[in-house]
Amino acid sequence: MTTIGHPLATSARLLPVSTHVLQAFTRSAPTGALGAEYSIDFGPAVLASLIAGPRRPPPDAPESLAVAAWLRQLRHGCNHPGLFGWGLAGYLLGLRSAALTWPGLGGLVERARKELAATASWQAENLAWYDYDLVTGTSGTLLVLASDPACTPDDLEATATHLTALCTRDDLQGLRVGHYKDEQMRGWNHGRVNTGMAHGATGVTAALCRAAEAGGLSDELASALSRLATWLVEHSATGDRGLCSWPIAGGLSDLPLRPQAWCYGTPGISWTLWETGRVLSDLRLQAFALDAAASFLRAYDEDIHQPDLSVCHGIPGLILICDAFDRYTPLQDAGELRDRLLRGLLDRLDEVAALAEHDCTLLSGATGACAVLLTLRSGTRSWLPAFGLR
């Protein structure tokens, strides 16, 4: 994709800004205290490995210093087995990425993998997001384990069994959230089944798809995936501008204009339904997914959807999803929107650099934006399973 004349091939500022982001992280990383839960994730390790490539840089290079600062945080331990924040799954993926450049980290990779595979600390009733979701919960853990070449089917058993057990009813009431009642930010999810990739049924679907590919499509996995896909299709609706979309949770009728991004809405859900159709050999489901994604391509308007600079809610995540549709599906025009979004993101590199002064995470911050651009330029995609992508 990055042929001569392509915006990524001709951008002279991408590498300097990416290096600046790592330097900002190194300056800000606390050296003796545990930072706030979402102040750090595995983004610095991913970005450092993308900048360095297979050749190990000297110890005083920005990439080496950033990885060292990131590793110092591991001394504080991880407080949950999920992906983002202080999650062990995220640290495993970060270590795995960094070990491609710094092979001495291989021992830590193996230790983290074994510990994560042995984790089974989720509730099956009165769920909070961390009991099942992609960002902090079981789905994120399963995505990382299932994408690890060294993991065995036995390593996936605890996480996959937990998630399939939550999906035994056609109405998916096993995924109904029991926490957050009366909370200002999350109260809307109390008593409902979330639809999104980040915290909902879509993230569970993405994780079980990956587990089926890694360990085989068992009857239990096939049944769970079929129920999840059917429920998601049944909860779709056509809204303004002909956009096939989803409410943020079952039981809600409003189709929000935004976010239409990786985390919620048509981009993340339609991609996951395509993957589910591929795993189940369900051509009708794949056709539905393509129709939904095509409606987004037709309806997308940056002034309306207002994506930010994060992978989660914004332009970098949309770039990855459009790239996936362009690479792996017959969807027309996905590559065109990807390239238009790429040019727009490259024009905003000053904003990405400024974002690094207060957010260097992969999920919502500057390392994510830079990692997306470098990934599409280099073709190194080993961290994308963390987002249900490939």
Q: How would you classify the quaternary structure?
A: single chain
Helix proportion range: 40-55%
Name the strands of the widest sheet in spatial order. Answer: 1-2
- Structural class comes to mainly alpha
Largest sheet composition: 2 strands, antiparallel
Instruction: Give the number of DSSP strands.
Output: 2
Strand fraction band? under 5%
Radius of gyration: 20 Å
First-residue to last-residue Cα separation:
16 Å
What is the element string, with H for helices and E for strands? HHHHHHHHHHEEHHHHHHH
What is the molecular shape? Answer: globular
Count every helix, treating DSSP H or I runs of 4 or more residues as helices: 17
Report mean pLDDT, rounded to a whole number.
93
Unreliable stretches (pLDDT < 50, length at least 5) are none
Fold and architecture overview:
The protein is mainly alpha-helical. It is 51% helix and 1% strand. It has 17 helices and 2 strands. A two-stranded antiparallel ribbon has the order 1-2. Helix 2 (14-28) crosses helix 3 (43-52). It starts with 6 loop residues before the first helix and ends in a 12-residue tail after the last helix. The model has no long low-confidence stretch (mean pLDDT 93).
